[in-house]
Every structure is written in structure tokens, then in C-alpha cells.
Specification:
A hairpin with a 3-residue loop joins strand 1 and strand 2. About 25% of the residues lie in helices and about 45% in strands. The chain is built from four helices and ten strands.
Length: about 180
């Protein structure tokens, strides 16, 4: 899959977000960068903070939305890997400083473009909040008992740390946001 196709996907996501935000209050961008290998954007629209972190070499990305409710708090993993079916249960693993955390969770799967797949689930269903995401260094989704096909998103390094810090600033600027403590 070419870099141009993957870049085109994110350009189309940005255009769609711009069109949606044109009907809503203005989006405030807190961080936006690309270094050729990784790219990230952190922004706030009203009471929702959003984060996009991608790895151009691996053709993967993770998007995190955190708002006031479970509906506005979602995790999206984007990859070229085609694993499982829509609404299927997956083995969901996160790399944390304490080791690998594994759970079985359902994800909604959609094809965002030819050969580009998005796996989505609410933070409530995943039993995650921003505290958990801050401690995560990577995400892995596989079919239960079958690791021959997997979605792996590396989420580490200096660029990731800058992105997490900007998302933390965004959430701190909100009067409240969804968390597991709610």
C-alpha cells in the first residue's frame, strides 16, 4: 500500500473533520506536527479533545476522542491489516510499564478506503480512560486464538510523549471529561 494512499486517507479525514467543524464552533489546534516518520494532531472542539497519532512507516494510526460522555469518548485504530469481522470480539492488548494488559473486547470495523481499515470502540467498553492511555506504549488487536493476522500500532517515543502532553493540556482546559471514575 503506497504512502500516498495512506496520506490521502488522513487528508480526507481532515477534510471531513473541517467540514463538520465548519458547522460547529471553531476547532482549536493545540499540537500539529509531522517529522516524515510520525505525525500528530491534538485539538479541541467545544467539550471534546481529539488526538491523532500516526506512524507513516508502519501505516498505522490511533485516534482518541474524549468528551463529557461515553458517546464522545472513543478509540479508533487505523491500519492496513484486515483482521476479523465487524463487531467481532478481538484480543486487545496494550503495552504498559507493568507489562502487557490483555482483554477480549468487541470492535466495530469499517473500511475507510481501499485496504485501509478502522477498528473502533468506546472507552467505556474498553474500560480505558486517559490515565490508561498515558501509560500505553502500543496497541495490538488479534482474533482470539489466531495471531496470524494482527493490527499493531506502536505508540512510543518522543513524538508520542509530546502528543500525550498536548492531550493532557487539552483535557485540563475542560471543566470535566469522561473517565472511569464517573
Amino acid at each position: 500500500m503506497s504512502s500516498k494512499l495512506f496520506a490521502a486517507l488522513f487528508a480526507s479525514l481532515a477534510i471531513a473533520a473541517s467540514a463538520a467543524s465548519a458547522q460547529q464552533p471553531a476547532e482549536e489546534v493545540l499540537l500539529q506536527f509531522t517529522d516524515g516518520a510520525e505525525f500528530a494532531t491534538v485539538s479541541r472542539t467545544e467539550t471534546t479533545c481529539s488526538m491523532l497519532f500516526g506512524n507513516e512507516a508502519d501505516k498505522t494510526a490511533v485516534t482518541l476522542l474524549i468528551g463529557k460522555t461515553t458517546v464522545t469518548s472513543q478509540l479508533y485504530i487505523i491500519s492496513l491489516a484486515d483482521v476479523g469481522a465487524n463487531a467481532e470480539q478481538f484480543d486487545f492488548r496494550r503495552l504498559t510499564p507493568d507489562g502487557i494488559v490483555t482483554d477480549r473486547k468487541a470492535f466495530f470495523k469499517t473500511e475507510q478506503g481501499p485496504g485501509i481499515f478502522e477498528y473502533a470502540s468506546s472507552l467505556e467498553a474498553l474500560q480505558l480512560d486517559f490515565d490508561d492511555i498515558q501509560k500505553t506504549g502500543g496497541f495490538l488487536i488479534t482474533k482470539p486464538g489466531d495471531e496470524s493476522a494482527a493490527v499493531l500500532v506502536k505508540f512510543n517515543g518522543v513524538a508520542r510523549d509530546r502528543t500525550i502532553a498536548a492531550m493532557g493540556e487539552c483535557l485540563a482546559s475542560q471543566p470535566s471529561h469522561w473517565s472511569l471514575d464517573d
